[in-house]
Write a structure and sequence with these properties.
- The chain has about 160 residues and is mainly alpha-helical.
- It has a domain at about 35-100.
- It has helices spanning about 25-65, 75-100, 105-120, 125-135, 140-159; strands at about 5-10, 15-20, 120-125.
- It has a 3-stranded antiparallel β-sheet.
- Strand 1 (about 5-10) and strand 2 (about 15-20) form a beta hairpin.
- The longest helix has about 40 residues, at about 25-65.
- The N and C termini lie close together (about 10 Å).
- The model has no long low-confidence stretch (mean pLDDT about 90).
Length: about 160
């Protein structure tokens, strides 16, 4: 017999909670994965902007050094390039700053994903009470799911 639901008893500070942990469906796995995909996309965009800033700043510095020399053949085109860099650098910095305001750090993303996992995979009479206890005691959902996973492993071995 293949089981996809595991009734477990979890204790937090000697307070017992009876819950049922379900194996995730493909749709549930996708919902959890979407959280990571969104975060990865945000971080990728930030990395791309940072690379562009570094490149532009480097080109600006090189052009500045070239312009400081006396025998520059194409001074006009270099000055036009510098003017473009002077406009682009503050814009990139602004874009990075705006993105940083909304960017979640990886530990927040992990906690969000594990909270979503809790909502999707845990059921039972004590689910609401457990969730309240988690929030009250500020327990990280990743830590909670590590404990739940250990209990589920023990249930799987019993069968």
């Amino acid at each position: 017999m293949i089981k996809t639901r595991y009734p477990i008893a979890l204790e937090i500070d000697d307070q017992p909670f009876s819950i049922v942990v379900n194996e995730p469906t493909k749709a549930q796995q996708k919902k959890i994965g979407d959280i990571f995909d969104k975060s990865a996309l945000e971080h990728s965009k930030r990395d791309s902007l940072q690379s562009e800033l570094n490149e532009t700043q480097n080109e600006f510095d090189i052009n500045k050094q070239i312009l400081s020399e006396d025998d520059v053949n194409d001074r006009h085109s270099i000055l036009l390039e510098q003017k473009a860099h002077n406009k682009r650098i503050p814009q990139i910095l602004k874009d990075i700053t705006e993105l940083d305001k909304t960017l979640t750090n990886m530990s927040e993303t992990l906690n969000e994903a594990f909270a979503k996992r809790f909502d999707l995979l845990v059921s039972g009479n004590d689910k609401a009470a457990l969730k309240k206890e988690i929030e009250t005691k500020n327990i990280n959902y990743q830590v909670l799911f590590n404990a739940i996973s250990e209990l589920v492993k023990k249930e799987k071995v019993k069968k």
